[in-house]
Specification:
The complex is a heterodimer of chains A (about 375) and B (about 475). By secondary structure, chain A is an alpha/beta fold. Chain A has helices spanning about 5-10, 25-30, 55-60, 90, 110-120, 130-140, 195-215, 230-245, 265-290, 355-365; strands spanning about 35-40, 50, 70-75, 80, 95-105, 150-155, 170, 250-255, 295-300, 320-325, 335, 355. Helix content of chain B is about 50%, strand content about 5%. In chain B, the strands form four sheets. Chain B has a two-stranded antiparallel ribbon with strand order 1-2. In chain B, strands 3-4 form a two-stranded antiparallel ribbon. A two-stranded antiparallel sheet of chain B has the order 5-6. Classes of the chains: A alpha/beta (about 375), B mainly alpha (about 475). Chains A and B meet through helix 5, strand 7 and helix 7 of A and helix 10 and helix 19 of B.
Chain lengths: ~375, ~475
């Protein structure tokens, strides 16, 4: 089957043909940005938000337990990992929510399957090829005049943005944008060749996004504070430029790698926590001084937490529920969910206390004003 | 010879007979009821692109065009080699420093060690790229790449680079051989023991990392016929293997091995590491899982369940002979189906090595390693234990622009042999020795001739006729989205 030029223009989103169909009122909510931070590999929740008074904690973790006097106290029972110190001001000013015991029923311990469940918000054995944000956007698309609907920094996986419908771009460096060339599409596309159609779409979206972003001069955005030089820090810097420079892209996905700490965790995990807090706090500072903090929501996620009992390699194996953070000027700070008790483990793992979909429901309804019927959970009251 | 139209014929598998033909000394499957015709140029290009690199060299095309499908497939299979031609880096025989030595290192010594490791990784990557550029059997390398994506290990966790080299050699030895042997060897492969923590797995505290991926990725496929309990029990059976600094091979320590009764896939016994491999191979899902993976990598397009089942059955009946499976794939109707041409997205190594071989690249191999990395593939460093996801995941905004920049750069240098780039790299692409480019420069090949060699599907852009100098035509074809397909 061959397509005409006009039909191609239609199915390749991003062409201004679609502009007319976007109602003006919808643009209002698209000034609100979500920054996703994937803790790629499954972060050790128990050593991130620490139940420091629970006698079972040091018992399960003879080598890995963070000693009580080093923990940054959040409450009588819970405290932050010492390397997360830079997040404490946000907690104290109630701009940070900590959702405890986030998980889902019948947990899967495979990296791939579990991240699939998280990123597509599907249940049990159902498989979806579309990420939850892509599915949200199919209810109401962000305006086509935006350079893209989502941008992926760092690791190339689009995760919650995956799906053929959404216009996403991957970005490592701003300079590479300027090298994009405009390309004209001929009418010889064989629609049955879905992989080729993917290549053509990507090329077309890339040209469009590049043209729009180059106009914004993001490299000229002045950031008043320094960002850490590591990979995650650089991603957060680029995220800050995208927000402050007015790119208007509603979703920015970043990732912190290396958290799959099967071994040598005592050396690796503190460094990871330091990277996380360093990157996040620099981002928050930059966004605040640009006056955009009320329009930004930062949320962490991961496929799972790690097993409470440490393994013989000085690490932790794949687990289940874990705590996650939400940061933003519009976030109602404090604790949500509940800390899963170490005395009631299921197959050696934590029993989840709150379904991750409650967070998604809040993002959909209270942040973007979308109905999102595929998310069955009730929204968590975390957004003001 | 180009542009000759060959008669179409139909394939039937009924009554296939085997003859030995003297010309190539190879076995050819002759189809009774179907003819035995020479390949068309498009078919020859298709076979070479899927089993090697594309665009193929003109000489490679000319060699197989006179052959039938069966002859061409066997010609390529018989040319496969077991060991690389490129000399190994000097350090591959070295043994790692003992723990008691490392323990006493200062932070400077430790840094030096890490730096040496990273340097060796780059040397190993260059070593493979050199082999890819110079090999006489692209098919061999294609299969080694396939297995490197299946039984993968990453430098991320394997900080002794010689182990990664040995794993690559192991994959080569069995690339077209016995899958059972390959599986047995990989379970105690040093790089794998490091990568998935097998060396830390002992009776008292089993580490499940390897056992999980063994079922989920290496044999049965995710969620197919095993339970969390099977994973736990299999880890116990896999326990006891360690690496010692005085030996390049894994050593079995009976005292670390769990000698108790285990129940694995419905069988109970005091199973050893080898027993788990035997038990899992009893399960037909293994052959289906492997056949599926081959189908995706070599046939592409919509999954054909019946065809996958047929291939899986052949694989089982051959007692897991990889060559039998691979040969059946290359001779299947699905493989030659015109609708399935150009439906697979080239991997970054297909892309870089294909173009570099075409223009007879003589520059620094590190350049190619870095380019592949920017397209999302770094040898010996897969993103995770599942390997590279492949398919449409190869093409993101970032990787597609990297691909286009790469081809533009290599072609820009055509005709500037020996000139120095601004960054000091010597740009050396030789046109004189390249028959395709030579033909394109002359008048005996028009744009359609070029398209039929360089692209698997028709180009998407429509300005090719205006591109006047032949290099501009080639350049336009390589920048076309259709060039991403094989």
């Amino acid at each position: 089957m061959l397509f005409t030029r006009r039909q191609i223009a239609k199915f390749i989103a991003g062409t201004p043909v679609l502009l007319k169909s976007t109602p003006i009122y919808a643009n209002e909510s698209w000034t609100r940005i979500v920054v996703l931070v994937e803790l790629n590999g499954g972060n050790d929740g128990l050593n991130t938000v620490i139940p420091y008074t629970d006698p079972a904690y040091p018992r399960l973790r003879p080598k890995l337990a963070v000693s009580r006097d080093k923990v940054l106290q959040l409450s009588e029972h819970l405290g932050l990992h010492p390397q997360l110190e830079k997040l404490m001001p946000l907690w104290e000013s109630r701009e940070m929510a900590i959702v405890l015991g986030v998980g889902y029923p019948e947990p899967n311990l495979s990296h791939f399957r579990s991240i699939d469940i998280w990123e597509t918000a599907t249940q049990g054995h159902r498989l979806a090829r579309e990420g939850w944000i892509s599915r949200l956007f199919s209810e109401r698309r962000p305006p086509t005049m935006l350079p893209a609907e989502g941008v992926v920094l760092g690791r190339n996986e689009p995760g919650p943005l995956m799906g053929d419908g959404s216009r996403i771009v991957n970005l490592k460096r701003l300079e590479s944008l300027k090298k994009q060339r405009q390309q004209l599409v001929n009418s010889n596309i064989i629609a049955a060749n879905s992989d080729l159609v993917h290549v053509i779409k990507t090329q077309d979206r890339l040209n469009y996004a590049a043209r729009k972003l180059v106009e914004k001069n993001l490299d000229k955005v002045i950031l008043k504070n320094e960002f850490p030089g590591h990979n995650f820090g650089r991603q957060m810097e680029l995220a800050a430029r995208l927000v402050i420079g007015g790119s208007g892209i509603p979703v920015i996905k970043c990732s912190l790698g290396g958290v799959d700490t099967h071994a040598g965790q005592v050396y690796r995990h503190p460094k990871l926590m330091e990277k996380l807090a360093g990157g996040l706090s620099a981002f928050v500072e930059a966004i605040k001084s640009a006056g955009a903090w009320n329009k930004v929501l930062v949320m962490t996620y991961a496929e799972f937490g790690r097993r409470p009992k440490e393994n013989a390699s000085g690490g932790t194996d794949h687990g289940t529920a874990a705590p996650h953070f939400l940061l933003g000027g519009s976030v109602r700070g404090g604790f949500y969910g509940g800390q899963p008790p170490l005395s009631q483990l299921h197959n050696g793992n934590l029993a989840y206390r709150v379904d991750f979909r409650e967070i998604y429901a809040a993002v959909a309804r209270d942040w973007w004003g979308l109905r999102a019927e595929f998310i069955k959970s009730k929204p968590m009251p975390v957004i003001m | 010879m180009f542009g000759l139209k060959k008669k179409r014929y139909s394939f039937t598998y009924r009554g296939a007979k085997r003859f030995v033909l003297g010309v190539f000394g190879v076995v050819i499957v002759m189809m009774v009821g179907g003819g035995c015709y020479a390949l068309s140029q498009e078919e020859a290009r298709h076979l070479l692109a899927r089993t090697g690199f594309s665009p193929p060299r003109l000489t490679e095309l000319e060699t197989i065009v006179p052959l039938t499908r069966g002859e061409a497939v066997d010609f390529l299979l018989n040319k496969s080699n077991l060991s690389p031609k490129t000399p190994a880096p000097a350090w591959v025989g070295e043994l790692p420093p003992a723990y008691k030595v490392r323990k006493k290192w200062s932070s400077i010594e430790r840094q030096a060690f890490n730096m040496q490791n990273r340097q060796r990784l780059r040397e190993l990557q260059s070593w493979w790229v050199t082999e890819l550029l110079s090999t006489t059997s692209p098919l061999t390398e294609n299969l080694v790449l396939f297995w490197h994506n299946h039984f993968t290990s990453s430098f991320q966790r394997v900080k002794w680079v010689p182990y990664l080299y040995h794993q690559n050699i192991l994959l080569r030895q069995h690339a077209l051989g016995d899958f059972k042997r390959l599986l047995r060897e990989i379970v105690t492969d040093p790089a794998m023991l490091f990568f998935l923590d097998g060396r830390r797995n002992h009776a008292k505290q089993p580490n499940e990392n390897f056992a999980r991926e063994f079922f989920e990725l290496f044999t049965l496929g995710e969620g197919n016929g095993y339970t969390e309990k099977d994973i736990r029990e299999a880890s116990r059976a896999f326990s006891g293997w360690v690496m010692r600094p005085d030996n390049v091979k894994a050593i079995f320590k009976p005292r670390r091995h769990d000698n108790g009764l285990k129940t694995i896939l419905g069988n109970t016994g005091n199973f050893s590491t080898n027993d788990v491999v035997s038990l899992v191979l009893e399960h037909p899902r293994v052959s289906v899982h492997i056949a599926e993976k081959f189908f995706v990598s070599y046939i592409g397009g919509k999954m054909d369940r019946a065809e996958i089942e047929r291939l899986a059955r052949l694989f089982r009946q051959s007692n897991y002979n990889i060559r039998t499976l691979f040969r059946a794939i290359l001779l299947s109707n699905a493989f030659w189906d015109r609708a399935r041409r150009g439906v697979i997205i080239k991997t970054p190594s297909d892309m870089t090595i294909g173009v570099a071989r075409l223009v007879q690249w003589r520059g620094n191999t590190t350049f190619l390693v870095n380019k592949m990395k920017s397209m999302g593939q770094e040898f010996f460093r897969p993103p995770n234990v599942k390997g590279w996801q492949g398919g449409t995941a190869w093409i993101t905004a970032t990787s597609l622009s990297a691909r286009n920049r790469f081809t533009a750069r290599l072609l820009r240098d055509l005709g500037k042999v020996g000139e120095r780039e601004a960054d000091g790299t010597m740009m050396m692409t030789s046109m004189k020795t390249n028959a395709l480019l030579e033909k394109a420069m002359g008048s005996d090949m028009d744009i359609n001739g070029l398209i039929s060699i360089m692209l698997a599907v028709q180009p998407v852009q429509k300005f090719l006729e205006q591109a006047v100098p032949p290099t501009a035509k080639i350049s336009a074809l390589m920048q076309d989205p259709a060039f991403q397909m094989k």
